[in-house]
Amino acid sequence: MAMTPYTGETLTIANIGTTPQERAMETSEFKMAFSKDFHEFVEWFNDTHKTDFDAVQTEITSHMAENVSQVIYAARGISLDGVQIITGLIGIPERIEIRAIITDWAKASISIGSWEKNGFAHTCYSILTTQGGSVISYSSLSCDVQVFDDEFNYLKGIIQNVTPTQFEILWLNDNTSPSGTVILQIIVYYHGGN
User: Looking at the whole model, is its pTM more than 0.70?
Assistant: First the structure.
């Protein structure tokens, strides 16, 4: 927003004179001249910029509640290929983040991944801790979640068909069938009153 510069008189006081003889004004006239520039400036500012500032304030206020997030919990048997439908969305998300974990006495597998509305990424990062204590990490640009049963058997999920009320996770097994259950924490980010 461009600001309109003030072009009114700013040197009224300097032009009046310093002694009563130079001023050639009554006291009441002098007081009015002394405050004239300020009053003109306030009137100009209110007429010129107050509506602009009010509009900016309204715009800022309208955006304060625009960023909304939602958390959804789900589970999935990792031996199951196919589509899982996640429901309960409150609009078209800007971003979906999935945090997944498999825990049992023999291993722990964790994955953090995300889907972006703008199409930039299906990305995830996964860590597997085996019973022997070794830690193996993986990263992928082809899926949104990836959990491992062991070094060779994993389930990866790809978010697809996102609508204002739901989305799908296409689950794909690799190699032989892994076993166990993955717990999902899904964080859905919205923007702009979708």
Answer: no
